[in-house]
Amino acid sequence: MGNKVALVTGITGQDGAYLARLLLDKGYVVHGVKRRSSSFNTGRIDDIYTDPFAKDQKLHLHYGDLTDATNLIRLVQQTEPDEIYNLGAQSHVQVSFETPEYTANSDAMGALRILEAIRILGMEQKTRFYQASTSELYGKVQEIPQTEKTPFYPRSPYAAAKLYAYWITVNYRESYDMHASNGILFNHESPLRGETFVTRKITRAVAAIKLKLQDCLYLGNLDAQRDWGHARDYVEGMWRIVQHETPDDFVLGTGEMHTVREFVEKAFGHVGITIEWRGKGVDETGICAESGRTLVRINERYFRPAEVELLLSDPTKAREKLGWTHTTSFEVLVQEMVAADLKVVAMEGDRNDRFE
Ligand code: NDP
Ligand code: GDR
C-alpha cells in the first residue's frame, strides 16, 4: 500500500501547521490549501516546506479558497485524498461581528462546498472528511460541563456559521453514507497561535513589557472562562477521529477552565512579575506589585456584542472511544508560550504594538 494522501484546508494556520507535521511524521503525502496573499502567509510551515522541487517532497501547497467551489472541486479531483481536514476558516469570533457574511461564506458554505466536491466526484466511499467544529457552538450556557449531547446556542456570526457546518457534516454522513465527522474542539493554543487571540496577545505583551518594548496591555472581558489546551494534543485527536472505524462527533478538551485574569497572572508570573488587581469593570487595572506600574488596562473595544462567558468540556467520549486525552497542562502551556514569545519579541524589536 502506498502513502495515504491528505488534503488540508487552513494549512497556514495554527492547527494546519501542527497537523501537517503530524501527518508527515506518519508517512502521509500532504496537500495543503493556501490563500493568495499580497505578503508571505506560510511562516508557520516554512520549516517543513524547504524545497518544493525536491523529488521526495511529501508536502504540496496549492492556491485555493473556501469561497471558490470550482477551485475546491479541482483540488479534490487532482489530489484524490483519502482524508480531508477542513481547518480553513475566518476563525476570529470578534471579527465575525464585523464580517458576518464573509464568515458565513467561508466557514459555513466552505464546508458544504467540500462535501459537495466529494459527492460530485463520486468519492463518498474513498474520502474521509473532518470538520473543525468548535465549543463556540455551545455559546450561551445550557449545561456544564459540555458534552456531545449538550444543546447548541451560538452567540456570534462565527458560531452560527460553524453551526451550519456542523449539521451539514452530520447530514452528509447520514444521507450519503460518508465517513464525515466533527471534532468539537475547545480552545487550544500554542506559540503558533494567531497574535490577536487572547492567550497569544497576553504572552506577546508580557514578553514585550518584560523587555521594556511595551508599556501596557489592553484587554476586554477578564472574567471570561475558557478550557485551554495545547494545539499539538488536539491535532492528534483530529487524526484519531478520522481513523475511527465509524464516523462520529467528538468533544476534545481538557475538562478544566480558567479565567482570562488567571491567564494574565500566570503569564506575568513566568517573567517574575506579580499582578495585583484594583478597581472594577472597565476601570479595573493590573498593577505590578514590585514597581507599582499599571501594566493591564481594560478597553471597551474588546468587549463583544454577545459574549460566551464560559466553556468547559467533558471529553469522556474521546477518552473512551479514541483513547485520546490532553497531555499539556495549563501551567506548561502558558510557560511554553511566554518562553517562545520572549525569543520572538526580542528578535522583532519594538514592533509589538502592531498586535493589539
Ligand atoms: P487560524 O485562524 O490560525 O487558521 C485559519 C486558517 O484558515 C488559515 O490557514 C487561513 O489562511 C485559512 N483561511 C481563512 N479563510 C479562508 C478561506 N476563505 N479559504 C481558505 N482558507 C482560509 O485557526 P486555527 O488553526 O486556530 O483553527 C483551525 C480551525 O479550527 C478553524 O476552522 C477554527 O475555526 C477551528 N477551531 C479552532 C479552535 C482553536 O482554539 N484554535 C477551537 C475550535 C475550532 P491565512 O493563513 O491565509 O489567514
Ligand atoms: P475565542 O478566543 O473567542 O474563545 O475563540 P479568544 O482568544 O479571541 O477569546 C477568548 C476570551 O477572551 C476574552 N477577551 C479577549 N479576547 C481577545 N481576542 N482579545 C482581547 O483583548 C480580549 N480580552 C478578553 C474574549 O471576550 C473571550 O471571552 C477561539 C477561536 O480560536 C475560535 O476559532 C474557536 O472556535 C474558539 O476559540 C473555540
Give your account of this protein's structure.
The chain has helices at residues 14-25, 69-79, 93-98, 100-120, 157-176, 198-210, 231-243, 260-269, 316-322, 330-348, and strands at 5-9, 29-34, 59-63, 83-86, 128-134, 180-185, 188-189, 217-219, 225-226, 229-230, 249-252, 258-259, 275-278, 285-288, 294-298. With 356 residues, the chain is of the alpha/beta class. It has 2 domains: 5-185, Rossmann fold; 198-226 and 258-309 and 330-354, Alpha-Beta Complex (UDP-galactose 4-epimerase, domain 1), CATH 3.90.25.10. The strands form 4 sheets. The protein has a 7-stranded parallel sheet, sandwiched between helices. A 4-stranded mixed sheet has the order 8-15-14-13. It has a two-stranded parallel sheet with strand order 7-10. It starts with a strand and ends in an 8-residue tail after the last helix. The mean pLDDT is 96.
